[in-house]
């Protein structure tokens, strides 16, 4: 018996800046996890991943990450993705400092 498909988002890193980015439903890359397209169909997820991987001039390391619906958009399921969504923890600026402001 096959496993039930877990909803996914497409994530990567910005090629020039290194920031974690997420593919949105309208084909933009966003630094906000909540703006990511939540994909609930396995075939569609593979198509979106192929689309992201073809953008090698602007993104690197695109992959599918498990996510779940949340009140403000997709939420990370795994610790690694929650950590990535917060941004680098060794900076006193950027996403980490914005969350504490």
Biggest sheet features: 5 strands, antiparallel
Shape, please? globular
Number of domains: 1
| Beta content | 15-25%
Secondary structure class reads alpha+beta
Radius of gyration from CA coordinates: 14 Å
- Tell me the helix content: 25-40%
Major β-sheet strand ordering: 3-2-1-4-5
Question: How many strand segments?
Answer: 5
From the N-terminal CA to the C-terminal CA, the straight-line distance is 49 Å
What is the residue-mean pLDDT, rounded to a whole number? Answer: 89
Uncertain segments of ≥5 residues (pLDDT<50)? none
Write the layout of secondary structure elements.
Elements: E1 8-14, E2 20-23, E3 29-30, H1 42-53, E4 59-68, E5 75-76, H2 79-86, H3 95-100
Antiparallel strand pairs: 1-2, 1-4, 2-3, 4-5
Descriptive account of the structure:
InterPro entries: DUF2849. This is DUF2849 domain-containing protein. Pfam families: DUF2849. The chain is an alpha+beta fold and 101 residues long. It has helices at 42-53, 79-86, 95-100; strands at residues 8-14, 20-23, 29-30, 59-68, 75-76. It has a 5-stranded antiparallel beta sheet. The chain is globular, with a radius of gyration of 14 Å. The mean pLDDT is 89.
Highlighted features:
single chain, 101 residues, alpha+beta, 5-stranded antiparallel sheet, 3 helices, 25% strand
């Amino acid at each position: 018996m096959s496993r039930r498909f877990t909803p996914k988002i497409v994530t990567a890193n910005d090629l020039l800046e290194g920031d974690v980015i997420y593919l949105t439903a309208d084909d933009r890359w966003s630094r906000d996890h909540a703006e990511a397209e939540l994909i609930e169909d396995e075939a569609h997820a593979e198509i979106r991943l192929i689309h992201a991987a073809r953008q090698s001039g602007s993104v690197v390391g695109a992959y599918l990450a498990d996510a779940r619906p949340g009140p403000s958009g997709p939420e990370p399921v795994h610790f690694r993705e929650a950590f990535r969504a917060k941004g680098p923890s060794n900076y006193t600026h950027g996403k980490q400092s914005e969350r504490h402001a």
